[in-house]
Every structure is written in C-alpha cells, then in structure tokens.
Amino acid sequence: MWLAGNRHARAGQTGFTLFELLIAITLVAALTAVAVPVFTRSAGTEVKAAARTLAAGLRRTRSRAVLQGRAQVLALDVKRHAFRVGTAGRTRALPSDVTLQLFTARSELLGERAGAIRFYPDGSSTGGRITVTAGDRRLLVDVNWLSGRVRILGAG
User: Fold this and answer.
1) Helices vs strands, H then E, count in the chain
2) Whole-prediction pTM
3) Of 10 and 15, which is predicted with more confidence?
C-alpha cells in the first residue's frame, strides 16, 4: 500500500529528474561545440578564404586568356575589397575585415587604390602580388610574370 500511494504522489509532482537534466546539459554542450565555430570566423579563416578566392579568380583569368587567345585582366579595387575578372565580369566581394595591398606593373594601375594583373594568351602575365592581412595573419597571392603561375604563400 505504501508503494501505491508513493506512485500516485509522484505522478502528480512536476519537475525533472537528475537523469533528464544531465541529458539536457549534454545536448546543449554538444550543440554549442558545433555551432560556435560555424558562427565565429577567426582572422586566419578570413585571410585564407580571401586569398583562395583571389587565387581562384586569377587562375580563371589566366585560363580565359589562354582559351580565348586574347589578353584578360583581373581588376582589384583595394578600397572596396572587390575584384572583377574581365571588363564585363561579375564583381566579387572579399571580406571587409581583411586588408589588401596590390603590387603590380605601373601600366596596370587603375588609380590610387585599384589596379589589375593582366594575363596573355601564352599564359604569361604582367605579374604581381596581392597581400591579404587580418590581425597577425598574412598571406601572399603571388603571380609569376613569366609563367602566369598563381601561388598562395604564407608570410610571417
């Protein structure tokens, strides 16, 4: 009889058992561990993403020059953090929290804060370097003038 009365009293009570609380805390911890890295990007991640995007754009520009048999340019606007492949290409935005510096041939300067890197039908280029920096992380997107080869180089 005592057991039957205890069950009845327990069924009317509200609250959570210790086991249920432990399960809830475990789920919250697991979700936080997965979600926080997704929503917070570090300076290193921003720099790497920007450098890869620029390198891909430069490689695309070189490929177009070779395939179409005429010179193609990648124009970079350092102030607006954006670049465009060709004259009628779509403008691609880069993260605004990275700093960009362009080193290119004098003939390819498009103003004080903009310039281009030109690729020729034989794959060669005017050459240049784009420095991408955020915090203490810096990467160099290097274009060899003779071969047109695009590489991402780490910098200290």
Assistant:
1) 3, 9
2) 0.71
3) 15
